[in-house]
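Hmm, what's this shape?
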Amino acid sequence: MSDESRPGPAAHGVRHAGDLELRPLPAVLLDLHEAGITGRFLVRRDRVVKTIELYEGQLVATSGRDETLGHFLVASGVITTAQHQAAVAEAHTTGRGVGDALVKAGLLTPERLLEQLAAQTRYRLLSPLRWTNGAWRFETRPLAPDGLVLSIPETVLTGLRDTSSEGPPPSQLLADLFLELTPRGQRLVPLFRAIYGARVPERLPEGVTARGLMEQGLPAAVVDALVLTDAVVPAIPRVGPALALRSGDTGERSPLYAELFGGLSTIAPMPTGGDPLDLADEALDNDLLDDDATRAARTALTSEALRIRDLDHYAVLLVDPHAGDLEIAAAVAERQSMFARDFYARFQLGNDASLLDDLHAAYEQAREVLLTDERRAAYDRELAGGDLTDRGVESDRLRTAGFDLLARGDAAAAASKFEAALGLRPEDPDALAGLGWAVWHREERTPEAADAARAYLGRALRVAPNLGVAHQHLGLIELAMGVDDQAALDHLERAARAVPGEAQVLDGIAALYLRRGAGRALERALRRLLRAGAGTPQDHAAIWQRLGALYSDHLDEPAAAKNAYAQAARLGGVSRPIRRIPTPLPGRTSDADFIAASLAVAAGEPTEGERLTYDELRPRAVPRARTTLSRELWALLHHPDDEADIGALAELLAPAVHALHPITLADLAVDPAARLTDAELPPAFAALRNYMAELLGLPVPPVFAHPDFGADVHVGATQELVLLAGDDALTAPDRATLGFRLGRASTFLWPGRAIGASRPARTLRSLVMALFRETTPTPRPPDEITAALDLLPGDVRRQASGLVGRLFARSPEHNLSRWAQSLGRTADRFGLLVCGDIPVALGLADAADGDLAAFAASTEFRKLRQALGITADANRAL
């Protein structure tokens, strides 16, 4: 284990107080020694207090002013009680120490005094060295050494040797745990050999236990001293990505891995490709219907929305134009009941959710008009040919003039015409929409202009909810403001249904989807417009043209692009070549240049050269690594808070967590019949799934289709580990977006990482504390936590207990929530690495604090790309 994977006290700041129950005194003294600090050290148990002084990390034997020196010399037989009393009286008279008085009396020489002071200092440490409870404190203070300086390592090891028969052997607690030599242990090996005369190995065999060391001939006293000084610690089992991955040295896995993951596993993680899918505090919807019912409901909703398009209020309600108020009111209630919001709330409507709003707006508008005598009379006149009075004719003329002025770019004059038209007919939706658009341009498209325009356009939509031009203007305003992209997309898609083929609308929709890196979603949106059938052949040609550009420029599907352009040409559009010609770049363009260009593109401020470099070198498919991810490479990848020992402990405790917090397919609303065989999986998705498993050394997980997940990929928390993939993810091509999502999810296919990401931190914390209390004088009484721990195999539980001791020895405080949060950051890093496209990864990543961008710019990221053989040069050669 490297120093990086297990930081020492100097690396994290020296602790100045602690509990001997958490860390034994020999290890504490060596911590202070390695930190090289100066001050006073005190250790206490009940009323017994021992005090020593340290100078730059070494023991100091003082000059003899300590009044306990005489008692120590009497107990050691160096002087008699009478000599001690005389020396005390002399010291009191002269104001000097007892040691000086003994030297003056000729009972000790100065050299002999120093020897006795050193012996007294060592003696003070003898009994506390093996205390199993008590507290210690260190006070930093200036100190000038005026006595003998003693080596802490030598003093500690000698004291442990001389007290080896006292107290319970600490190695018993670790008898069956795999051990490893720490960096401290490697430094102390020569001293162990010199003091104990034993052949302590410079490197412990992998998988060796304390019992095994003693069976191989190492004295029990040496093993105990190794444990008490933190020279050996429980080894982190090779579980989890950072440890179960193949080592660059041996490529082997430990027996514990096979025990944990061989055969039927009860471990079931449940993170998602993005945020964890945590059901801990959420009630499941028991009324959630199956997929067939969902599809039927969505079909009925879509059919009704298509039926009422461009119909008058009477046709919308399916009533006769001469119907009375009671018949109209009953028709409104019937239509609202057929498409009740409460009923549709149980379905995952996806993009069709806006249609429900459209329907209710149309029904409500029909009710307001037809059940108000004055408004119904005006509406009937409109249906009969419009307002043929002078006011109606003049209003139409002013409105037409306003649109002509808008087309010529004179927004101020156009606004005046629209205002005049509204003075004659205040509820004219076209005039309201035109005035909103004119105000937006007249006021130079400022936020204040957007607010004013929204007011007029909102009024227009209250009068005519399906007015395409109002939705178009609102969508373009929201797009320009850049505050609410979802609102912009909703309005533009409604406008596209009403006015198919409008260039501004289609351009806006494309910009919003591609800004998210959602090219496949854009494809579906354009195909929905084609299936709707509205518009002229020229409108359809414009949509096919954009589909061709999408396939050619963003999805890299030449065959589909060729077909789309052919359809556009058949309908009167323009065809265009689709074969991609590589762009010439400077001959020495490196992978570092590509990364820099990608970061500039992601930041939205690329130069022309950086944009050219990115567009040319970005991977058209997920690049394949030439080697698997070893533990050494994982060390370059993982987030600093993603601590290996916490992850290994979570891995060991995963079955117990699952017993306390089980998840089934039913809990996730997953139909068992939705499982896809390998033959049924789309080839691109299957290939990427298998590649991720091979790269991480994982078993290939089964896949279940989950239509409501869209483009996301989740990990299901069932007894058999599964991937849950949305329809869009399953049908996505082998591109960066799918690579990021699938790669990110794959990092959670380890039990420890899964429970960290998906279960409450308090569950893992309670198990950890229960294990810790098992080693204390007051163990935890049996409860559901201990019952869950009892489900663990004996060897696994012992390994977990050893890791708990290792954690608390290093520090009594551990933030499990921070570790859990770091799992997502590591997952983002892996997704970035495997997809190879920095702007795409940064657009899809969960964290927006700059951590992933900083990693993309780091030396570690470049080393990983080089080691895996996925640099820009390698990609271009494919």
Remarks:
- Confidence is low (pLDDT under 50) at residues 1-12, 248-291, 576-581.
